[in-house]
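Escalation from tier 1.

The customer reports that the assembly of two entities below gives different structure tokens on two consecutive runs. Tier 1 could not reproduce it. I'm attaching the input and our single run for tier 2 to review.
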Amino acid sequence: MAAVGSACLFVGLLTAVFAVGASLYGARTGRRRWVDSSRRAIYALAALLVVAFGLLEAAYLTSDLSFQIVTESSSTDTPTFYKLTGLWSTQEGSLLLWGLLLSIFSSAVLYATRRRLRDIVPYATAVLGAVATFFLALSVFAESPFTVLATPPAEGNGLNPLLRHPAMMIHPPMLYSGYVGFSIPFAFAIGALVTGRTGADWIRATRRYALVAWTFLGFGIMLGALWSYSELGWGGYWAWDPVENASLMPWLVGTAFLHSVMVQEKRGMLKVWNVSLIVTTFVLALLGTFLVRSGILSSIHAFGASTLGAPFLAFIALVLVGSVVLVLARLPALRTEARLDSLVSREAVFVGNNLVLVGVCFVIFWGTFFPLISEAVTGTESSVGPPWFNRYVTPLALVLVLLSGIGPVVAWRRATPANLRRVFAVPVAVAAVALVTLLLLTPALESVPSLIMFTLVAFVLAVVGQELWRGTTARRTMTREPLPVALGRLVARNRRRYGGYTVHAGIAILFLGVAASSAFVDQRDARLVPGQTARVGDYDLTYREPTARFLDDRSGTGAPVTFGAVLDVRRRDGGQSFVLRPSRNYYAAPGADGAGGTFGRFFEGESTTEVDVRSGLRRDLWTAVQPDIGALSGAIREANRRFAGVPAEAQALILAAIVERYRRDAPPATFRTLVSPMIAWIWVGGSVALLGALLALWPTAAARSRRVTSLYAARLGRELSRA
Amino acid sequence: MDPARKRKTRAVVLLTVALLLAGALIYTSFSAATEATTPSQLVASAEPERSYELTGKVVDGSVSREGERLRFAVRDRVGQTAIPVVYEGVVPDPFREGREVIVEGRVVGGTLMADRDSLVTKCPSKFTEKQGGQG
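Tier 1 run:
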């Protein structure tokens, strides 16, 4: 099995190299058959990688411990969902996943463009084949997922407990789909530059892929934030950690790209900017993939020196330098077709949006790589923390939200005062009303940035609402449809536009949640014994009693021991009362004679926080508990001493007794509680943005009929020319 | 002003603003940063009232809890020079003796008084997803 898998990878590598060679040869000599062959090579590559992937998943499902990666990240008692997804928690598996997704996306775009863009496609194929070659070479020569152990162990390590959360396991495929997705427009941009066909064709052919990539990447980032909030013990969703930043940077530049290509399509401007942006996005995507598995930055993820550091950096440098040289060489072909007429125009707003997004990306880049920069400049390694990031990103985010309200409605080329009055009168009024309401009825003034953000959010939502209203009423004057039908048909016929508006609304709502939950969060840490009460925000939390469970993991992650607490919560102004049950899962340290002894090892392995949150539209009450198991150390030592040699069934009984001791003795436990106002709106806003993106992506009936008719027209043309 | 000159002026203004902002950013990053150090560096020459970021491994057997406080010692990755740390706040899930940690704080009388919630523990295995917590 492993041999078949390795063969698939090796043959895949050869296929990718062939694709590069054949497409370049075909492009140079004009021999279409070679180009077609290179395309089929990519299809073949996808098939081979699917087989390799399937073999590995089968190994995981059957817990075939002769595979090294199965032993590292799975075990016979890992729940099935985590068995299947554990593949990409390993270095080798995640590289294979990258290659697999790349080959699938490449196959899709090459199939879709098999009869179009005949000049550009061969070079795009070559670029995609080259990237695939790189990842496959890593898989074949450096980090093979098919490494077999000479003597398979009796049991695997199991999936890292911190990863046993659905969001965290879907997160990597989403991110990689995003990174891979951006390689498609990149490849076509390179093709456009090489052939000199620098019009908007390459953009139109790959626009959908760029949007798909953006959607996946954004969704992946959201999942990561959601995981941080609901699985980690600190109650936040974003820490400006290097790995978080590594995924956010390509997304920001990708967002800029999605906007600026619209200007090129409409007015033939920003050509150099667009190719530079997509090159930057792709390089940042590679950098993101690299950062997470390298040792260069001191963060949660820095593991000594990784063997992949040098090849990755070399590849990134090659891509960057090659692209820059190509752009400079083709500058004449990238001359702009039009000029910016007025600063009050949609083009100008889009340029502004781009500058802000690139600015935010620069801030994050600088802060993330600052340890390396400061070491190079001053000799000592220093780092900057979240306050520095927040200080610079916040004002830029405010400008971004403002522009997202202005952009959709301001006219192209030059907006007249009359036009401005017409489109902005209502939204500005709504924003003013919102501002006054906030000042009078809420404590929003305590945080001026939040106040400004709330006002701008009101502005953006008013713009979106106004556009929906105007479009619907305009339609109704002609068709006399009932309101919901008119709205539905309006949106269905202009999916790109209204999808985009929905995304803007979603992002605005997301920023509403971010601002409110950051500025007005109430946090309290307390060490309580049963019966004691802690106060946080408007809530009183009473530690009623401890809980202890053995082989009864409610979170579905397979933890043998769970200690927790039952908290009675009451809102101070006589409101609802409810119960929260935060807990902590304890996983056994691997190996029968691991640290802690026969029984102690159940408490010495990894442990994870199982948070309990009461979510609401107005606020979330978040709690985590840190039980003090030091009180059990005496009992554990006793058990180790006296019962080390007893059979497994008796061991289980003794362990259950130790676990029960925690519940009986009820030592004090440390609780962290947070009241985060409106934090749920972050997830709501993200979902709305996701829906907007899906709406914009959805093919319309008109587009489909256009494709069919154009196919018939082409066929007819061929017939006629032959006659 | 003819359009070409207007465009040129706009470009110059934009570039100047961008450079000024970038300059401010770069300047403040150097002054707002905390220096990364190892235990032997801190033990040898720690300035009082200065914020440091300590990286090293948790010494086996040094972890003890007193109420809300966590006490442990951090040693160099290779070597035995260790510095005691007093910490309050969230303890990340992977925290364990022998693991690599990053913690920020000030040195008072030979002990690092850590900033609240600044403890970060590095992932134990070669490649796993993000872990740990910071305030």
